[in-house]
Design brief:
Blueprint (H helix, E strand, L loop, with lengths): L1 H11 L4 H9 L4 E7 L5 H14 L20 H11 L4 E6 L12 E5 L16 H12 L14 H31 L22
Length: 208
């Protein structure tokens, strides 16, 4: 029964034809359904969620964030409205047993379990996405002190500091080695002094 419901959710999620074939023809068990959006669309998603909350009569609390609060799930009607009103469309991805899903820094995402799952997640900072990570840190600072995401878990400033410190140490080490080599190559060769051993000479007097 749950397989039928999972396949129905996959069909309604906007997954591509290859994904739909994979879970049917190869009989792989779908574990989770992901929707991942581009980081540049974050503010548009926020605007939609705030608009929907107001339409429902909810009060927007200060220092809250509809994305970081993790209180919303974009179902099919909301995803359709997001596309029609803002032109935003995400990527629907099915994660099967053994699959790893990479989520770029700052990318809004949501996940729905289609089967019993155990999640293993690892956060990391890549050089290409430092700017997005720093932007996320700034967003976390505006949340309330009691918010679960208020803490700077990425520690992006410490990462940047230690990365620069290690880089400078490596550059200084290479520079010192180059200077030592240059001094060694440019210094004149040492002068070699040849010492001629003295010959013992017997001085004799000739009798006259």
């Amino acid at each position: 029964m749950y397989i039928t419901e999972a396949l129905k959710a996959i069909d309604e999620a906007g997954c591509d034809i290859l994904t739909r074939r994979r879970v049917r023809e190869k009989e792989e068990v779908p574990g989770a359904l992901w929707h991942i959006y581009h980081a540049r669309d974050s503010d548009k998603i926020r605007d939609l969620l705030n608009k929907v909350a107001i339409e429902r009569g909810d009060k927007l609390e200060p220092h809250h964030d509809p994305i970081h609060d993790q209180a919303w799930y974009l179902d099919s009607p909301l995803r359709e409205r997001l596309y029609k009103e803002y032109g935003v469309e995400g990527y629907a991805i099915i994660q099967c047993l053994g699959d790893a899903v990479f989520i770029p820094a700052g990318a809004p995402h949501q996940v729905r379990n289609l089967h019993n799952c155990v999640k293993v997640a690892e956060d990391f900072v890549s050089p290409e996405n430092v700017s997005y990570c720093f932007h996320l840190t700034q967003e976390f600072r505006h949340l309330s002190d009691t918010h679960t995401n208020h803490e700077d878990k990425l520690q992006i400033k410490n990462i940047i500091y230690h990365a620069m410190k290690d880089s400078m140490a490596c550059l200084m080490s290479v520079t010192r080695e180059a200077q030592v080599k240059e001094e060694r190559d440019s210094s004149p060769p040492p002068t070699t002094t040849t010492t001629v051993p003295a010959t013992d000479k017997k001085v004799s007097e000739t009798d006259s």
